[in-house]
Design a protein that fits this description.
Blueprint (H helix, E strand, L loop, with lengths): L5 H4 L13 H6 L3 H17 L5 E5 L2 E6 L16 E8 L4 E5 H5 L1 H14 L9 E4 L7 H9 L3 H22 L27
Antiparallel strand pairs: 1-2, 2-3, 3-4, 4-5
Length: 200
């Protein structure tokens, strides 16, 4: 089990960020082909998304997060932000689908990669980012199932277990304070030689 760190979870912040305030505005700003493709994937996500997630604009793209009303602690790197679960964005040369649970949960990742391979489609994936240029690149049924398999409560449990394991590893990796060697006992003073007795 691996914890998605700040860099991975906000991977698209350093790429093409949108200033759109709503998902509708974001989609409206896209070229027609990109708008159509992301709208199809978005519908698959929404049709399979647990009701405890919320859709919104996060990190300059479309995001699906666990809101603070469900998970008050929020995201550990920035507790003011909700816990991110999935995302969609349009980049310069491709579009991206972000599935945080595929990176963070080993069993889920194995299932996902096997199901994708079975579909016959080529998987172009980084740590949590699936890159695609058209809807035809994606096995939509696999994406829908990947979303459906991880309701919000399960995602929170995965996230908290990963956080706990990361904390344990951090504690084990800390160098232990070196013990100062015990002070050596003071040497006993040597007895002074007796003065030679005066001759009779």
């Amino acid at each position: 089990m691996r914890l998605l760190n700040c860099c991975h979870a906000t991977a698209y912040t350093s790429l093409m960020q949108s200033t759109a305030a709503t998902v509708a505005e974001y989609l409206a700003d896209l070229p027609p082909d990109r708008r159509q493709a992301l709208s199809v994937v978005r519908k698959v996500i929404l049709d399979n998304l647990d009701e405890d997630y919320e859709e919104g604009m996060y990190y300059g793209g479309i995001g699906y997060c666990v809101p603070h009303r469900v998970f008050p602690a929020g995201y550990h790197c920035d507790p003011t932000q909700p816990l991110c679960f999935a995302g969609l964005s349009s980049q310069k040369h491709y579009m991206s689908l972000y599935l945080m649970s595929v990176y963070s949960e080993t069993e889920h990742k194995r299932w996902f990669e096997a199901a994708w391979k079975k579909s016959g489609k080529k998987l172009d994936m980084g740590k949590c980012c699936i890159r695609f240029k058209s809807v035809e690149d994606l096995p939509l049924e696999v994406i829908g199932e990947a979303i459906r398999r991880v309701p919000a409560k399960k995602w929170i449990a995965i996230y908290e277990r990963a956080r706990a394991m990361t904390s344990q590893r951090s504690e084990k990796g800390k160098p232990q304070a070196k013990r100062r060697p015990a002070a050596k006992p003071a040497k006993a003073a040597r007895p002074q030689r007796r003065a030679a007795r005066a001759a009779d």
